[in-house]
UniProtKB/TrEMBL annotation:
Residue intervals of the Tetrahydrofolate dehydrogenase/cyclohydrolase NAD(P)-binding domain: 140-284
UniProt-listed Enzyme Commission number(s): 1.5.1.5, 3.5.4.9
Gene: folD
Organism listed in the record: Bradyrhizobium oligotrophicum S58
Protein name: Bifunctional protein FolD
InterPro entries with a match to the protein in the record: Aminoacid_DH-like_N_sf, NAD(P)-bd_dom_sf, THF_DH/CycHdrlase, THF_DH/CycHdrlase_cat_dom, THF_DH/CycHdrlase_CS, THF_DH/CycHdrlase_NAD-bd_dom
Length: 294
């Protein structure tokens, strides 16, 4: 069997086009231009790539994009002051602080300072708690993207056995909550889990969000399972260059899986598209408008 490739590029482009249509409508009918502010502290080259692609795609969708680059040695107070300013700025409806933050800055304090209504990353305890309680919330973009990709294969995830490998606040935990809301049966695995290959082999849906290049192997996968690879790992090649690989050994797993996401071109594409969705939703909610169609 050779897996169907889930094309994140195409699915994300479709989602961005839907966002752009809705942005045009709220601009025309309500004079509302959704705005996203991205805060990047320090100059990690990988982060700069993501931030640039967020900026380009935000503008392409007709939204306002505000970039704030701060030096790695910025003080916590200065960063909190910027967040306070963005919280009060009526042109800003979404605030994303790129993680991880450089040493010396307390992630929790910084995240908690973001107005929950503008927390398009879904990381503030207000939104994380609401999501865990099954209430409407701004949910993290990468897990949202994982659910959309899974549904392109299965329609409904109800009753399916899912495993989420990884339990970070940004990916694993919120993904578990979204899967529960979809009525999947969820196993949560992490670095202390015992016999990960056997746990994974029971799953119809496998989500790998670990940060270990090509960790998930062919013999871990139930034949026909859907494999969603969240990992983004840059590794050296034999030719002395670098390449991106996921947390799944793609070539061998694609021989047994029913469907699989590539890296690049899978989940990463959806993350940025879902950020636009969240910004549009946040803008409509803040302006007191009905929920947008996307
Ligand atoms: N495509 C996209 O848009 C995005 C991709 N990513 C990528 O996804 C990956 C995960 O990111 P993130 O969640 O932020 O990473 P974190 O480092 O925050 O979390 C990694 C998780 O994996 C678990 N883990 C580590 N080693 C093992 C192991 N050997 N077996 C089982 N579990 C293990 C850890 O367990 P424990 O809790 O016990 O330490 C932890 O829960 C990274 O490659 C990252 O680059 C991240 C965000 C967006
Ligand atoms: N507060 C916060 N929120 C995040 O959502 C967040 C973050 N911090 N820190 C870093 C991770 C990582 N992340 C990615 C986004 C897009 C791609 C992406 O577009 N990837 C492309 C390829 C990119 C390339 O070629 O380098 C793809 O997979 O096709 C990847 C990874 C968001 N993250």
């Amino acid at each position: 069997m050779t897996a169907r490739i889930i094309d994140g590029k195409v699915i994300a482009a479709d989602l961005r086009a839907q966002v752009a249509r809705e942005v045009e409508r709220v601009k025309r009918d309500h004079g509302l231009t959704p705005g996203l502010a991205v805060v990047l502290v320090g100059n990690d080259p990988a982060s700069e790539v993501y931030v640039r692609s967020k900026h380009t795609q935000t503008q392409a969708a007709g939204m306002a994009s505000f970039e704030h680059k701060l030096p790695a040695d910025v003080s916590q107070d200065e960063l909190l002051a910027l967040i306070g300013k963005l919280n009060r700025d009526p042109a800003v409806h979404g605030i994303l602080v790129q993680l991880p933050l450089p040493k010396g800055l307390e992630t929790e304090v910084v995240i908690n300072a973001i107005d929950p209504a503008k927390d398009v990353d879904g990381l503030h305890p207000h939104n994380a708690g609401r999501l865990a309680g099954g209430q409407p919330a701004l949910a993290p973009c990468t897990p949202l993207g994982c659910i959309i990709l899974s549904k392109t294969v299965h329609g409904s995830l109800e009753g399916m056995n899912a495993i989420v490998i990884g339990r970070s606040n940004l990916v694993g935990r919120p993904l578990v909550q979204l899967l529960l809301n979809e009525n999947a049966t969820v196993t949560i695995a992490h670095s202390r889990s015992r016999d990960l290959p056997a746990l994974t082999a029971r799953a119809d849906l496998v989500y790998a969000a670990v940060g270990r290049p090509e960790m998930v192997k062919r013999d871990w996968i139930k034949p026909g399972a859907t494999v969603i690879d969240v990992g983004i790992n840059r590794i050296p090649t034999a030719e002395g260059k670098t390449k991106l690989v996921g947390d799944v050994a793609y070539a061998e797993v694609a021989e047994v899986a029913g469907a699989i996401t590539p890296v690049p071109g899978g989940v990463g594409q959806m993350t940025v598209a879902c950020l636009l969705v969240n910004t549009l939703r946040a803008a409509c909610a803040i302006a007191g408008l009905p929920k947008p169609a996307v």
